[in-house]
Amino acid sequence: MNFADRFKGARLAAGMSQKDAADGLVASSYISLIESGSRVPKQELIEAFAERFGVTPESLLTDIPNVSQELALSSIRAQINDGQFNSSIDALEEILSTTAIESVVSLQAQLLKAKCLKALGESAEALQILEQLVGLDRPEHSALHAEAVLELLRFYLHSGDSSFGALLGEQFIGSQAKPLWPAEFLVGILCQTATCHVALGNLSRARSLAAQAGEIAKRISDPRSLAFYEWERSGIAESLGNTSEAIILMKRSLAHAQAAELLDSLPRMKSALAVLSVNAALEDISGVRNLCESAYLECLATGNVQSAAYACLALAELSLRDGITQEALKHAETGINLISATHIEPFLELAIVRIKSIFVLDQDLDQVVRSAEELEAIDRHSTQDLSGLWVFIAREFAQRGQLDRSTQAYEEAISVANSLDAPTVSIDGK
Questions:
Q1: Which residue among 36, 91, 229, 404 has its CA within the 20 to 30 Å range from the CA of 285?
Q2: Can you tell me the distance from the alpha carbon of 316 to that of 320, in angstroms, rounded to the nearest whole number?
Q3: What kind and span of H or E run contains 408?
């Protein structure tokens, strides 16, 4: 059922003629245009009509899903939060086989499937689904459309294509669909676009977008939105070299995230805070370590292996900072083992810490090359990251006087970079 049908059904159920429905709001002819599907009113008119008909705006904009299907989707969302991506895809395929392709339930299932595929590294299929969902720019699907836009921006940001991500984000922010988007998703879209600008060095535009997100988040007093807003501000502060301010903002972000129970984001935030603490060379980061250890145990207890891996990454980074290299290696390998079957994030980051630790401990350096080659064989990581990893390895070999190995690593970095015309950069971005 489309918007026109829902609108007409609500009008008739309220016992109103087209003239009654239009009275004081629009011309009667406009009601005919709405019910023929030729016009869709703006959000404020939809709200006025809903009040007149005695229904909610949401009931005009979306179908009411089958209760059993909605419960099934809720169960699948919980599985996804626990990192059970393959079983979630199987369950989603079952729902998709029994629902109309453009029904609300089907579209929600498609979006969840895209998230699972992205987490599993099946980027091409995930991208195809997201682009299809973003193309369904209809008022009755405004919430789902906004969430799909947000996921698409995250996709391009994580794939290293910040330039295209920033371009798309700006297009979406300036689109006519923006007024219909739920505020929490609009905050996310503004923040993701700002993050793309940070990666490109466009800090002025990033600050402007973050300020817009902040105004909306504060107005709606939504802890989820505030968490992502403060996280974005932390990233901008870090880019400007204000590490102390970045730490303060990240702690605020954590507080909001805990209030919103963002269980899937908390370990990543704690990992980010740990890395900031490393960069700030703080004397006492025992509180951060305790946070990471508790996050690791909580995630393991609930079966959320991906989030547990992020906690391992934070602990490994902290151990490297404190010079406890053997412990850093242990945490990195624990995280890798947790996600070795799927190679989902943060597999690459953990592998990098592992390689750094092996160099510091001066262990079997052949293992370093094997690890890098295994990462390259997986072919699920951004070319820039892999190129940077080989440059890091080349420099480490050069410092140890192993010039032949250093040359081979540099050649591998160039080969990887040339495969997609990506820039050859070091692992620390220098």
A1: 229
A2: 6
A3: helix 403-419
Report the C-alpha gap between 323 and 326 in whole angstroms: 9
Q: Is residue 388 part of a domain?
A: yes
In one-letter notation, the amino acid at residue 66 is N
Give pLDDT tens digits for 407-427.
Answer: 988 888 888 777 654 444 344
Main-chain phi, psi angles of 24, to 5 degrees: 80, -5
Shortest CA distance to 111 belongs to which of 96, 99, 100, 98? 96
Pair of tokens at residue 136: 């369904």
Domain hosting residue 28, numbered range: 3-61
d(CA 325, CA 317): 10
Nearest CA among 340, 355, 287 for reference residue 309: 340
DSSP string, 272-304: HHHHHHHHHT-S--HHHHHHHHHHHHHHHHHT-
DSSP string, 48-78: HHHHHHTS-HHHHHS----HHHHHHHHHHHH
Choose one of 61, 92, 108: the last residue of a domain. 61
Q: Please count the helices (runs of H) and the strands (runs of E) in the chain.
A: 23, 0
Tokens at 5, concatenated: 């049908």
Domain contains 192: no
Nearest in space to 350 (alpha carbons), one of 373, 377, 379, 316: 316
Task: Report whether pLDDT(72) > 90.
Answer: no
Query: Pick from 155, 153, 177: which is nearest to 166 by CA?
Result: 153
**Which CATH number goes with the domain that contains 51?**
1.10.260.40
The residues, ordered by sequence, that sit 6+ positions from 418 with a Cβ below 8 Å of its Cβ are: none
User: What type of residue is 115?
Assistant: K
Instruction: Specify if 406 maps to a domain.
Output: yes
* Residue 380 belongs to a domain: yes
Signed CA dihedral, 30, 34, 36, 37: sign only = positive
Provide the number of structural domains found in the chain.
Answer: 2
Handedness of CA 178, 182, 184, 185 (dihedral sign): negative
* pLDDT tens-digit map of 202-254: 888 988 998 888 888 888 888 888 888 888 888 888 877 888 888 899 989 98
Digit-coded pLDDT (tens) for 130-183: 988 888 766 667 778 888 888 888 888 766 678 888 999 998 888 755 666 778
